[in-house]
Amino acid sequence: MAAETVRVKNIGLRGVTVADTKISYIDGENGVLIYRGYRIEELAERSTFMETAFLLLNGRLPGKSELERFEGQVVEARELPGFILENMEKFPKRTDPMEVLQACVPMLAMADPELADDSREANVRKAVRLIARVPAIVAAWHRIRNGEKALAPDNGLSHAANFLWQLTGKKPGAEISRDFDICLILHADHTFNASTFACREVVSTNAHIYAGVAAGVGALSGSLHGGANERVMKMLLQLESELGSVDDVGPWVRDRIASGKKIMGMGHAVYKTLDPRAKILKEMSRRLSEKAGHLKWYEYLVRIEEEGRKEFSARGKPGINTNVDFYSGSVYASIGIPIDIMTPVFAISRISGWCAHIIEEKFAEAQEKPALYRPEAEYVGNYCGVVGCTYEPLSARG
Question: What's the pTM?
Answer without folding.
Answer: 0.92
